[in-house]
Amino acid sequence: MSYASVKGINIFYESAGGDFLPLIVIHGAGGSSQSWSKQISGLQKQGNLIVLDLPGHGKSGGSLLADISSMADFLNDFVQTLGIEKFSLAGHSMGGAIAQEFTLRYPGKVTGLILLGTGARLRVGQGIIDAAASGMFPFKNVDHLYGSATSDEEKAKEMKELQKIPANVFWADFQACNTFNRIDEVEKIQVPTLILVGEEDVMTPVKYSQFLADKLTNANLRIIKESGHMCMQEKATEVNAAIRNFLENLTSYESTDV
């Protein structure tokens, strides 16, 4: 566990060593690096992960950022602070939007892309945004986040954790998601891309990922059975294996492309 001072803001991140180029990992709306805890533990020998808390999230300081473009620019400041020039990039939901935006804005820095439960456009229901704006917790339960393989006990546990997150964090993130739209530009992404989505994801349905797979010329779509929006938590073993295989193939591709 470490902190980086990014333009005077203390940004928390966790890292796990490995043999590959760094994989920068970005959480979704209202989340933190803890969303990826099972990847940090499961890929620590191979992954060379760097999993951060965005400004105003988790253990990071700073103000919440207004839009996905600002988040992508912040990410560029973060990797520059760490002195990282080339890396792969993974993002879940809102983090996937940031990953797409970053790759479009700074294409020379990204060697590979992993997109989980995301889309080229991320509309959010106005009722959810209004609830968060009024200071209310925006969800009645977490059924929309998890698939059939997740027990009620686990869902109740996750609900308690989500309720600890301030409503203004959800509001800012949902506003950013709601204005994100790269449908017409996403096909410009040329790097190898792994797309993962839960078969039962109702937040970002499979059709969102299928659109990305159809538009990107160098993409592989993997649908994770019996899982929902939080597939990296629900089916960590399967997701970790897919990420590990992607990184191994990416390394082989890079080593021959000299």
Question: How would you explain this protein's 3D organization?
Answer:
With 258 residues, this protein is an alpha/beta fold. The chain has one domain (2-123, 180-256): Rossmann fold (3-Layer(aba) Sandwich), CATH 3.40.50. The chain has 9 helices and 8 strands. It has helices spanning 37-42, 68-82, 94-105, 126-133, 152-162, 167-179, 206-215, 231-234, 236-256, and strands at 2-6, 9-16, 23-26, 49-52, 87-92, 110-116, 193-198, 219-224. An 8-stranded mixed β-sheet has the order 1-2-4-3-5-6-7-8, sandwiched between helices. Strand 1 (2-6) and strand 2 (9-16) form a beta hairpin. The longest helix has 21 residues, at 236-256. It is globular, with a radius of gyration of 17 Å. 45% of the residues are buried. The model has no long low-confidence stretch (mean pLDDT 93).
